[in-house]
Structure formats: structure tokens, C-alpha cells
Specification:
alpha/beta, Rossmann fold, Elongation Factor Tu (Ef-tu), domain 3, 4 domains, seven-stranded antiparallel beta sheet, six-stranded mixed beta sheet, 25% helix
Length: 575
């Protein structure tokens, strides 16, 4: 019976026998290419090196020389029940980043412990990592039972110690299995040397795992990898490229892009060097063209209208495992990578920190050190779209980069309310109800030979904001551009006249929202829009960015030193 493909990761401390177990599993189930086993045995005999089943998968030359796995090997394997992709992950402490990479793609895990050495620090670290990455299907293989004379007492001692640790982190393994990878006891065949054990073999325990609902049955999630525009021979298509993380996509499907909230639908599906097709599913790399041309960018998440939407925020509560040489601290900027999204991130607060080995909690932590596990809140520079680990693991796992090194990895537990939450809800509702004409933004861009753009000029009163804006408008106009200058006062005393009667500072956010909506309308016509306002803050500019749907807007501060928390693109003297 075929019960679907499953990814299994083998993890554990160095020399505890992960690769040997995998090699023995392949050999004992006749899953190896014909003659592979015999060829390796002959090669070892000629060189005088003892044969190891680990050699079957440790393909790198350096790995054979040192007898350690330094990268994640990928082995396809088929039992009578299903097909597997086995990920043999590194156990050596220096290669833990690779282990995180391997485990992040797994649905289940086999965690290997040497019966003779017992539970090691890495055994606990790896268990904690599997828990962090949301992997709940876990088998604990207590290997090398031949070195302890197949003692049931040794097995029980190791099992009890590690079971207590796993219970402390909320993990309930499916089975603890005693075995000998070298001798083949308990791997694919029952362990005759251990008549006291009546549980499953590794193979039987793997086959007993039940898969989650396939990604194809989940909501569509298509992280945008890139947007490609063709202009030759009258071809003005924009092709959105990416790999489907979950769900299915077909021609004509209505789509929503997050975090922008822009709506479109699928005109066609395209692929490189493949025949025409009208439907694609999870795991497939595809390109699509849009029926309604909208401006999308790398890092946005395409979802299907009518299906559960992802969360969008700049504040994330996460579980994190830190592997950076420098501690994770407040005030330092990092790069968060989630799917194709990339955003600058800072540590907002630490809720808890514990040592991944001892499981000891720190009192009032102020930083996260090497090999510590933390529950914390991250604050991003701009919002991203994501799911939580209990909803869709494919779009909840992330890494943090410090400089040029991956320094941490984890899973999003919750999206928190931020200053733009209410605005985004309004923008998504507006996009839902928007009435489209027969002209697209692409049509206007082609006619005017320009993309819509927003230039925000701010600064103190009397600094020359309006003079600079008027001069820029004239220069663009003389270049043949469609351009318009809009001062916020033109909206305050027109569209916002009802609010101006009370002169209440508490109305500022509503003033700004209406101003942003007018800007959005003008930008939708395809023009370059120049706006002015007095001493805007970073929150004000971020709010405008959400309302108009343009992440790349240009901000100019006029009048010397910046007097708010704004981070402008350019600062000029009085104009």
C-alpha cells in the first residue's frame, strides 16, 4: 500500500551511528543499486580499511577520511508502504547549521543515541531543535546495543533518562527502539539478540507514521521568488516566479498578494522547457502571468482569494535556537529570512531563555547566547506575510542572519498587533471592494513611459518644502512626465474639512489616512506624485507606505538636522 512520500531526518551526536543505521536499512531492504554493497566491501578490503555501512551514503571524500558526516546526505528509499527521502544530518557540533537545514525539510525524525556512551549534550540539543522546528513524529533509536551485550538494563537506563528530557520539552516519541546498526539487529529485521524487546523495528516504526494532510490540500502559499518583465516584440507580460509551498494553483484562480493586499488572477501558468499546463501543486516551481496587472515584488506571498489568509505583521513571537558566535542582543540589527522574504529585524523583548542541554531557565535574561533556546519577540522594519508553526510549517520557519552567517533558526508562534494592523485591515477591505476599469496599471505605464512613484518631502515650517516640491514638479513636467504636486493642506481643508473644524490633534491619524487614500487614487492613474507635510515621523511614513502600497517611496527631509525619528533617504538644507 502506498501511503505517500515522507521526509525523514536522522540526527544524533557524532559517532552514535546515524549513517550506519541508514546504510544498513538500505542494504537489508535491497534498496541499493546492484553491486554497490559488494563494490564498497571490495574497495575496503583492498585498502585494508574495515568496511562500514556508513560508507554507503557518506559520499564526500573528506567524510570517508574522517568518518564523520559533514553535510546532509539525501537518500531515496522505498518500503512496502511508501517512498521516503532520508536526510542523514550531521551530528558533529561544528556542523549544527547543516543539521538545522536538513531538519527544516523533514516531517519526521529518527534521533540516534549510542547505548554505550549514553545521552550526550548534542542528544539534548538535537531533541530541542526538532521540537523547535515543529517535528512531532520522532523515533529514538538506542544504537550499538552489541557494545553493551544487548543489555535490557542499559537500554532502560538510557531510555528513562532521555524520555524525562523529552517530556520536559513537550515531546512524546513514538517509540524507543534498541538496535545494532552494524549487526542489523532491529533495523529492518527483528532483533533476535534481544528477545526481551517486543516493539517495532526502525522500518516498522517509520511505516507506522501517518502523514499530515498533503500540502496540496492546504491553502495556497506561493512565495514570490522574482518578477520578470518582457518588453521585446510588443510582449509586456510580467511573469511571477516561485515554488508553490502549499495548495494548488490553476488558470483563472483569484489571488491576493500579502502583505500588500493587491488582487489579481491567473492569466496563464508557464514553465521553463515544459509543455503547456493549466494546474500546478505544492513543490512545483512555476511562473504565472496576471490577468489584472499589479506591481508585486519578491518576498510577497501569493494566496488564493477565499482561502484562509496568512498573518501580516512587523512583530513576531517566535521560538528560536541561537547558534551565533556573538549573542543575540537588543539594539543590534539582523536579517530575517522567511521563505523569499527578507527583512531587517531587531530583538524587541525576551520572554524566556533556557540552555538547550541542561534545560535550565535563566532568570531575567538580557541576551541569548550560543546554543540557547529562547521565546522572544522580534520587531521587523517592514511587515511580512507568514503562518504559524501549528498552521503551515512551510511558511513559518525562518533563519536569522548576523553579518554573513546564519546565527539562528526557529519557527513563528504568533503574529502580534503592531501600529499598522488596523490600517492594513482597511487596505485589504478596500482591495476587496475595488472596482477595476478596462485599463490596467501596465497599460498606463506603457502609455506614459513611467512607473507610478511617490516622493515625500517633509521638514520644519519655513524650510522650503513647498518650493522644492514645486520645482521638482516643473522639472518632471518639462521632461514629459505625468506628475502632480499635492500638499497635505490641499486635503486638510478639502476632503478633511469636517475634521479641521475641531482642530483636535487626536485626529492626526485620520487626517493622514485620508491623505494617503487620495495619494493612492492619484498613484493608480500612473503618475509621479510629489507630496509635502510638516515634520513627518517614521510612523507617519510607514502608514503612507501601507496605504499606497508602495514600499519603495522616496523621503526627503528639508531644513537641516532631522527633528523627528524619521530616517529619510536624503537630507537637504533650506531650499
Amino acid at each position: 500500500m502506498d501511503s505517500g512520500h515522507m521526509n525523514i531526518v536522522f540526527v544524533g551526536h557524532v559517532d552514535h551511528g546515524k549513517s550506519t543505521i541508514v546504510g544498513r536499512l538500505l542494504a537489508d531492504t535491497n534498496a541499493l543499486p546492484k553491486g554497490k554493497l559488494e563494490a564498497l566491501q571490495e574497495s575496503c578490503a583492498r585498502s585494508g580499511k574495515p568496511f562500514e555501512y556508513a560508507f554507503l551514503i557518506d559520499a564526500l571524500k573528506d567524510e570517508r577520511a574522517q568518518n564523520i558526516t559533514i553535510d546532509t546526505a539525501r537518500i531515496f528509499f522505498k518500503s512496502k508502504k511508501r517512498e521516503y527521502l532520508i536526510l542523514d544530518a550531521p551530528g558533529h557540533i561544528e556542523f549544527i547549521r547543516n543539521m538545522v537545514t536538513g531538519a527544516s525539510h523533514a516531517e519526521a525524525a529518527v534521533l540516534v543515541i549510542d547505548a554505550n556512551e549514553g545521552v550526550m549534550e548534542n542528544s539534548r540539543r538535537h531533541g530541542r531543535l526538532l521540537s523547535l522546528l515543529g517535528i512531532r513524529r520522532i523515533i529514538v533509536a538506542i544504537n550499538k546495543m552489541d557494545l553493551v551485550a544487548y543489555s535490557s538494563e542499559v537500554f532502560e537506563r538510557v531510555r528513562e533518562e532521555y524520555a524525562a528530557f523529552l517530556q520536559g520539552i513537550g515531546v512524546q516519541p513514538a517509540a524507543f527502539i534498541p538496535l545494532s546498526g552494524r549487526e542489523g539487529e532491529g533495523v529492518a529485521h527483528p532483533a533476535k539478540a534481544m528477545p526481551w524487546y517486543h516493539g517495532p523495528t526502525i522500518l516498522e516504526a517509520l511505516d507506522a507514521f501517518e502523514k499530515d494532510a498533503p500540502p496540496a490540500n492546504q491553502p495556497l502559499r506561493l512565495p514570490i521568488q522574482g518578477v520578470y518583465r518582457f518588453q521585446g516584440n510588443g510582449d509586456r507580460r510580467r511573469i511571477i516566479a516561485g515554488s508553490i509551498a502549499s495548495g494548488t494553483l490553476k488558470q483563472g484562480d483569484p489571488l491576493v498578494a500579502y502583505p500588500s493586499g493587491k488582487k489579481t488572477s491567473v492569466e496563464s501558468l508557464v514553465g521553463f522547457n515544459r509543455p503547456d499546463f493549466t494546474q500546478a501543486g505544492a513543490g512545483e516551481p512555476i511562473g504565472l502571468t496576471m490577468r489584472e496587472q499589479v506591481y508585486l515584488r519578491r518576498g510577497e506571498l501569493l494566496c488564493k482569494h477565499g482561502e484562509p489568509a496568512p498573518q501580516v505583521s512587523t512583530r513576531l513571537r517566535v521560538s528560536l535556537f541561537w547558534i551565533g558566535q556573538e549573542p543575540l542582543v537588543m539594539g543590534r540589527q539582523y536579517l530575517l529570512k522567511l521563505g523569499t522574504a527578507r527583512q531587517k529585524a531587531e530583538l524587541e523583548s525576551i520572554e524566556s531563555v533556557m540552555d538547550a542541554t541542561s534545560f535550565a531557565a535563566h532568570d531575567k535574561p538580557t541576551q541569548i547566547a550560543y546554543h540557547e533556546v529562547a521565546e522572544l519577540i522580534l520587531r521587523l522594519e517592514q511587515p511580512i506575510a507568514f503562518d504559524t508553526g501549528d498552521e503551515l510549517p512551510q511558511t513559518s520557519r525562518f533563519v536569522l542572519v548576523d553579518g554573513y552567517e546564519i546565527a539562528g533558526g526557529g519557527i513563528v508562534r504568533e503574529g502580534l498587533v503592531d501600529s499598522g494592523s488596523s490600517l492594513r485591515r482597511e487596505v485589504y477591505q478596500r482591495s476587496e471592494k475595488w472596482i477595476h476599469g478596462r485599463l490596467s496599471s501596465e497599460d498606463r505605464a506603457a502609455r506614459f513611459d513611467q512607473e507610478p512613484a511617490l516622493i515625500v518631502i517633509t521638514g520644519p515650517r519655513g524650510s522650503g518644502r513647498k518650493r522644492l516640491a514645486a520645482e521638482m514638479e516643473l522639472q518632471y513636467f518639462e521632461q514629459g512626465r505625468l506628475v502632480y504636486y499635492l500638499g497635505i493642506g490641499s486635503v486638510l481643508y478639502g476632503v478633511n474639512a469636517d475634521l479641521m473644524e475641531e482642530r483636535d490633534p487626536a485626529h492626526w491619524q485620520e487626517h493622514l489616512r485620508r491623505f494617503g487614500e487620495v495619494c493612492h487614487l492619484l498613484l493608480d492613474t500612473g503618475m509621479i506624485l510629489i507630496v509635502t507635510a510638516v515634520e513627518l515621523t517614521q510612523h507617519d511614513v510607514d502608514s503612507l507606505r501601507i496605504i499606497v502600497g508602495l514600499e519603495d517611496l522616496r523621503v526627503i527631509w528639508v531644513g537641516g538636522p532631522v527633528t523627528t525619528d524619521l530616517v529619510p533617504d536624503e537630507v537637504v538644507d533650506h531650499f
